[in-house]
Amino acid sequence: MDKAGHIFSAYFEGKYSREMWRWSGLPRKQQIWIGGLSGFTYQSVIEVLDGFSEEWGFSWSDMGANAIGSALLISQELAWDEQRIQLKFSTHPATYPEGILDDKARQLFGQSFPARALKDYNAQTYWASVNLYSFNKNTWLPRWLNIAVGYGADGMYGGRDNTWTDAHGVKYDYSGIPRIRQFYLSPDIDFTKIRSRKKGIRVLFQVLNMMKFPAPTLEINSLGKVKLHAIYF
């Protein structure tokens, strides 16, 4: 999940930087490279700062994930002058059993919804959303219809495993709780494909497009279980 977050962050930051550079007057390719690489640059600065932290440390794999996010953005702009495959994000309130696990979740992820939306891997899903019309403009399908593949997780109470030691030296072992990978398939909406003459509406659609639209969703997880969600976000 951490690597998915790095890929999304570099892509998202580069995408909206690219949108701002459209109005700069620079040649198209310069706009793409400057805007696209800004996400990688920003995330790399954070990674270097992490290298001075005893808690986190520098990670080459995180740098690689940052590069993948920027490369996905830049390659599509150069090839198609549009984002046919967009990375998106969704989150939902996660609940935990009262007691030790709930206390641990509050410690790790915070208590407010905004804090948990950013920190709680159990509540996050990252999506690759494909616009069908962009790949076949002769189709009868609407321009805004996407198909999204998502990735999420559950049962995570630590960075690498579900064991920890508290400030008083008490050890907790919840390794019996499986850390589950979740894979999703769902329809989505590309708001940027909905035409509007109003600039404010177009800007709003750009912002909305970072989020996966709630829709019926098929889930398959690493335990081999299949679920159908009437609405998943």
Gist?
With 233 residues, the protein is an alpha+beta fold. Helix content is 41%, strand content 24%. The strands form two sheets. Strands 1-2-3-6-7-8 form a six-stranded antiparallel β-sheet. Strands 4-5 form a two-stranded antiparallel sheet.
Helix content: 40-55%
Tally of individual helices: 7
Number of domains: 2
Strand composition percent: 15-25%
Which class of secondary structure composition applies to the elements? alpha+beta
Computed CA radius of gyration, to the nearest angstrom: 20 Å
Rough outline: globular
Please count the beta strands (DSSP E, at least 2 residues each).
Answer: 8
Spans where pLDDT lies below 50 across 5 or more residues: none
Mean pLDDT: 89
Give helix and strand order, one letter per element, not per position.
Answer: HHHEHHEHEEEEHEE
Strand arrangement across the biggest beta sheet: 1-2-3-6-7-8
What distance lies between the first and last C-alpha atoms, to the nearest angstrom? 17 Å
Q: What characterizes the major β-sheet?
A: 6 strands, antiparallel
Protein name: DUF2279 domain-containing protein
Pfam family, one: DUF2279
InterPro entries: DUF2279_periplasmic_lipo (IPR018736)
